[in-house]
Every structure is written in structure tokens, then in C-alpha cells.
Amino acid sequence: MVNDTLQGPADGPSDPYYCELNGDRGKRIPQLERVRERLKNLDISTLVARAREAENELFNLGITFTVYSDKDAIDRILPFDVIPRVLTAGEWQIIESGVVQRVKALNLFLWDIYHDGKILADGVVPKALVLGNSNYRPEMRGLDPPCGTYIHINGTDIVRDREGRFRVLEDNGRAPSGVSYVVENRHLMQRAFPDLLAGLKVRPVSNYGEQLMARLREVAPGGISDPSIVLLSPGVYNSAYFEHIFLAREMGVPLVEGRDLVVEDDRVYMRTLAGLARVDVIYRRINDDFLDPEAFNPTSMLGVAGLMRAAHAGRVTLANAVGTGVADDKAVYAYVPQIIRYYLAEEPIIDNVETHICGTKEGLDYTLANLERLVVKPVGESGGYGIVVGPKASRTEIEACRKQILADPDNFISQPMIDLSVCPTLAGDKVQPRHVDLRPYAVTGKETWVLPGGLTRVALKEGSIIVNSSQGGGTKDTWVLVEDGA
Amino acid sequence: MSLLARYAEHLFWLARYLERTASLARIIETHVAFDRVRDDDVSWAWLVALHRDEEEFAKHYADPSLKNVIKFYIADIDNPGSVRFAIRAARENARALRAVIPTEMWIQLNEFYNRFLVFSDRDLDPIRIARTCDQIKSGCYAQLGIADSTLYRDEGWRFFRLGLMIERADQTSRLLDVKFAQIATGAGGHGRAVDETFWSLVLRSAVAYQAFHRFEPRGADPNRVARFLLINSSHPRSASSCIIEAQRMLGELRSGFGLRGVSRAQEEAEELLELLQTAAADTDLVRRLHTVNDSLQRRLMNLTGSVGVAFFGYTPVQQQSQSQSQS
């Protein structure tokens, strides 16, 4: 029976982590009692069997990413754990309002730094950090995106510490991926565990496509009431191609590639059977660098020449806007609490993780003096690459890290090691605690809407705190309870 | 808004590869299962001639034995004429279409693709190959059936049907051509007697066995078989049935969707029909059959080329190579 293992992690007094299902060392979360009861009643062999069926289904559905070698193309699924992560209505309220606040502040920040740069002049954020940032795009100066929105689609990586407090670990304001898994995971759970969900009031996630579509319509260039919207993908070889399909399908818009679009007279057109058809809004999943060979990387075969010209002329809206990477930069991240206070005159609803910027003298000194206790991250990397976890690193790894930091301090930040919360997870034929994080997705047009829940990523390797799929991470369905009462 | 041109192109080729796969699997299955003069030495050279693969085949295999032919036409991913290659191509086209086609179509094709991602020795064992071919055929039929009952009836549907019809007409014509060549090369081609069995194999390869015998109670002879497969207006796989349907699709694209770009293709379809009408009136069709088939296949290629130039951005120079398979 699952019974024992489900109680295990939180009941053991020696266990140092906050448990998403069992709470804090025996302090139960009463709202989750019903879910816990149902999970306990599941037989472990049933759980294993249904998990296997679920993974088969993902494979057959083609909810996969493709790994290419010289000759073969191998489809792989993102590992899926069948034990859901559940958030109470109260918890969700904190996350939702915290994310809305953050996205609002980041959009105001982007507007400011691509216009007057008041926040820089006022010395709240160091000028060099922004203007000298490789993700700052001078091409965006003076461009006025509709509704002042730069980050239309945002993913905020949130973790929970030992005390059960939420903290923002990272902002993703370029082209955050993973939302398709949120919706597909729920569909999968509904098919595989109808008994687990029956009668529970869980907030739905399947309307993401409609919400996204509605927000993108809001940001169409002025005067266009029935905009033509497309999703621009690098194509079938991109590892997130499934997600591009999913989003286009859910919105009912064409999934186009660079070769399907053309810019003429600062207007963007799509090649249809009947000739060229105007395009007003592009949800683009191609990075800034490759988006427009005329403005950026001239060798790009994926992009569309002239997109930036069309955007400047106000003929097309790019979502997300170009140049948002400066706002989700790991060093700028350290200033987000100040950014929130500066524009909104509010305190951050969700705190940052304490961050030391190696580009500053204090940050560098502190980091070098405490390497074995800190997590060091390269500023420009994503996907969990290049992270050195001090407490888990060998002597040699620490020294190598020290050398790298000294060679290029600006490229690093450090943070204390967070004791990420855990969630019961199926590991072989046992249920064991594994570390998780959460990435809620926010879409913004005039206003911001947050998809209830988000992507729970789980580090499947025992003891690992790196949840990225490239590093052995999987996902879970995330349930947000509609109400916490009784 | 009109359909993204690339989607139409993928739909066109998706249908062609499915039809091609089913056709090849059926021909192999039929000959393995129904040829009563089975003999291990029986030559499969005629199959290699179906798509004029003699040169390529000879590079890799010593002789056209059943075992070698199975390898080359079923499992060899480097052979663009193989089942394995065609299933992959069909699935690649479907992958690019996933945002527009019903999920049902994609799931079936994806499972089908994964089933035959690797052909086991058991799958390819001459003793079991008929069963394997039957599964391949069923996979294609299932996909075509799902498309028929679920695919949205827009321009894309017409391009899907157009691809299907062009490929089907081409396959029927090729089958007739190699079979009559087999007779012409004497001794029924490598010791093959031209008897009842021979004609039944031809007819079964074109799913025409039952219908032919209802329609022609006098039984099979070269002239009747050729006419049935070329110009019978009720057999859905006859060349003229396919061309009439293709013509209807082109007409709908023009009148229902205002695509004037079809005009060249419409002219070509018209010429194709004229060719078949002339053949129908020919009292000595059997003697001129190869010329008719040759012309038929060439014009079908041109038809694909014209559609490609008008809608898929093919340059006229590309036409030749593009018209048989996707680049």
C-alpha cells in the first residue's frame, strides 16, 4: 500500500524538507486531507500499472520531443509522475497575485529602459547592468508596443523553502516553454485517474488557449478589430515543437515557419493558397537572435527579414516583444524587488531568493568566501546548465568554479542553497519524496491572467534539486483547489 | 483566410505516401498469398521494374529473390521507394500538419509509424510477409478512413484527395504496365504462365478481382483487364475514375475557393481524360498499352508539377524531380 510511504517523509522528525502533500513535519494541511486519503487507498501496483499506461499514452499521442542523431530520430517523452501536486486556494491566491505584480513591474521596467530610462537615472538599477547587457536590444528604443506589454507570455519559477514560504527563483520573459504539459498532464490524469479526481473541485486548465488568444487579440496593432494571428516556430526539428503544435491548435491559428512569412512595405504577410494574407500578431517561439536576419543574426535561416521594421512601423505585434531578455536576466533578477517598489510602490508579494551579484565587489567577495554553501549560476545560461551546487560539489568542482568566477565575475550570481520542498513521487515501485518547483504561466494583454497551477517540475533523481528536463527532471499535474472551506 | 500553402502541400504528399505504401504492400501481399505456382526461384524482377528501380536494386542485391525484394521494398530506409521510407515520409508530413489535422489522424499514424519503426526478422520472414503487408495496408486504410470521416472540408481536403487520386492513378498504370511487360518478355516473364492465376494476381493487386468478375462474366483476358483497370468508370481505382475525381477536386478549388492557379492543372487533367477516351476507342489497345501507360504516367507527373508551381512554390525546373516524390 501507498499508505506508509505517503506518511513517511513528513512524519519523520529527521526530514528537513517541507512536503507539498503532508505539510511541515506533522503539521497537516487540513485542506489536502481528502486528496491524501484517496492516494492512500490506491494500491502501489495499481499506481505503477497506471503510470506505465500513462507514459505509453504520452508516447502514442506524440507528446514527445525528438532527439536527433546522425541517422535516427528518437522520440522521447518528458517523464510524467502520476502523483499530483496540490495547492490550496489560499496558497494559489498568494502565487497568483505575486505573479501578476511581478509581470506588471517587469513590463513597466521594460517600457522605461527602452524609453526614458528613469529607473537607471534614479540609480535604482545600475545603468551598466541594463545597457551593457547582451539581451538589451537598442533596436527596441522608441518602439511602443500596444498596451505597453512586452512580456505577453511569462513563466515564473517559484520554489518553496523549508518553512513552506514561496520564493521566486527566476523569471522567464522570453519564450517560456512547458505550458502544453500543464494541460496535457491534466488530460492524462483525467483519463488515468478519474477516481482520484472525482468530486474534487479543482480549477480547470484547459482554457489556456482561449485566454492566450484573447490577450493576443488585445495587443493587435491599433485599429485592427479582427486581427490575424499566427504562431511562428523554428520548425519540426525544434525540441519544443510539440508545444508549438499544441498552442496553434488550441488557439486555432496557423503554425508557420519563417519561410511561410514575408515582409513587404513594412507589413507582414503569410503565403496562403490564395496569395499573400496579412498577419497582425505573431506569437513567436524563435529567439531574438534568429528572428530577423535584417536586424539581428544575418545568417539566420529561421527568421523573417524585415520583422523589426514592421514592428517599428506599428504594423505587427511581436509576442513576446524583442529585448525582454534583459528583464529576466539572472543579475537583473536581484533588483526585481526594488523594481516592484519603484514602479508600483508596493512590497513584493513573493520574495526573491537572496542573491549575490559577482559583478559587484561585495557580491564577489561574499561568494568566493562561501562557495561551499552557495549555489552558483551563470547569468546567461538557461535549462539548468552550468549550475554548481556548493554543498553537493567536490573540492575540485568548487575550485574550478572559483576560477571561472574570477575569470568573468559579471557572468555569475550566487544564492544560498534553498531546501526545496518535496512531493511524494513514484520511484520504481516505491513512493518517495522528491524535490519540486513550480512554474505558473501568465498571459498579458491589457491585463494579466494566470493559469491556475502551472508546471510542477520534479527532480526524479534522489536528492537532486535540479528539476530541468535536460537534467533528469519530470513533471506532475498541479491541482489548485477551488475553495479551502471544509 | 485561405489555407497556408505549406499545409496544402503536406496534405497532398501525406495522401500520396499513404496510397503508395498501401499499394506496394498490397502487390507484395497478393503475390505471396495467391500465387499458386509458388516456387522459391520465382523471380520478382517485375516488381523491381514497377518503379524502374533496376539500377539501384542491382547495386545492393545479387538477385531479385523474394527475400531481397522484401528487404529492399519493405525495410530499406535508404530506398525512397520502400514502405519504411514512405511511412516515415507520411508521418513527417503529418507532423507538420498536427496543428490542423484532427488528433485522431495523428495518433493513428504515429502508432502506425512506431509499430513499423523497426521491421523484425519475423516481420520480414517470407512465411509471414503476407501478414506483415496486410498490417501495413490496414494501417494506411485506417488513416485514409479517419481522414475521410474527420478531416475538415476546406481547400486542404481537396489537396489531400488530389494527391490520393494522382498517386492511385499512377500506381494502377504502373501495375498494368509491368504486368503486360511480363507477358511481352515471353514465357510469361521468367517462366510464368499467363493463365487464370496470372490475371487474378493483377486484379487482386488493384482490388478489382470481385468487381471484375461481376462486370465481366466471360472471364479475364488481356483486353478486358486492361480496359477495366484503365477506363471502367465504376471501379474506384481505375485510372479514369481517379482522374475524374482529381478533376472534380480541381474544379472545387477553383469555383469554391477562387483558386485560379489551378487552371494549368485543369487543362492537364482534361488532356489526361482525352488520352483515356482515345484509349477506350482503340480496338487494338493491348498492343498500344505501353505507350498509353507511358504517356499517362508522364502527364500525371506534369499535373503534380503544375500544382506544385502554382501553389507550393516549386520552380518549373524542379518539376521533374519533385513530381514523383517530395524533395
Protein model, in words:
The complex is a heterodimer of chains A (486) and B (327). With 486 residues, chain A is an alpha+beta fold. Chain A has three domains: 1-202 and 327-353 and 418-486, no CATH class; 222-315, Rossmann fold; 354-416, Dna Ligase, domain 1 (2-Layer Sandwich), CATH 3.30.1490. Chain A has 16 helices and 23 strands. Chain A has helices at 3-11, 33-40, 44-61, 89-113, 118-121, 127-131, 179-192, 194-197, 208-218, 241-251, 288-291, 307-312, 330-333, 336-344, 361-369, 395-407; strands at residues 64-68, 73-77, 80-87, 153-160, 166-172, 229-232, 255-256, 261-264, 267-272, 275-279, 281-284, 317-319, 351-352, 356-357, 374-378, 388-389, 412-416, 422-427, 430-439, 441-444, 448-450, 455-459, 473-480. Chain A has a five-stranded mixed beta sheet. In chain A, strands 13-5-4-20-21 form a five-stranded mixed beta sheet. A four-stranded parallel beta sheet of chain A has the order 7-6-11-12. Chain B has 327 residues and is mostly helical. Chain B has one domain. Chain B contains 16 helices and no strands. In chain B, helix 1 packs parallel to helix 9 (155-184), helix 6 (103-115) packs antiparallel against helix 8 and helix 9 (155-184) runs antiparallel to helix 13. Chain B is globular and about 60 Å long. The interface between A and B is medium-sized, with 26 and 28 residues.
Blueprint of the fold:
The complex is a heterodimer of chains A (486) and B (327).
Chain A: H1 3-11, H2 33-40, H3 44-61, E1 64-68, E2 73-77, E3 80-87, H4 89-113, H5 118-121, H6 127-131, E4 153-160, E5 166-172, H7 179-192, H8 194-197, H9 208-218, E6 229-232, H10 241-251, E7 255-256, E8 261-264, E9 267-272, E10 275-279, E11 281-284, H11 288-291, H12 307-312, E12 317-319, H13 330-333, H14 336-344, E13 351-352, E14 356-357, H15 361-369, E15 374-378, E16 388-389, H16 395-407, E17 412-416, E18 422-427, E19 430-439, E20 441-444, E21 448-450, E22 455-459, E23 473-480
Parallel strand pairs in A: 3-23, 5-13, 6-7, 6-11, 11-12
Antiparallel strand pairs in A: 1-2, 4-5, 4-20, 8-9, 9-10, 14-17, 15-16, 15-17, 18-19, 19-22, 20-21, 22-23
Helix pairs in contact in A: 4-14, 9-10
Chain B: H1 5-34, H2 45-50, H3 54-60, H4 66-75, H5 83-96, H6 103-115, H7 121-124, H8 129-150, H9 155-184, H10 196-205, H11 209-215, H12 222-231, H13 239-255, H14 263-281, H15 285-312, H16 319-322
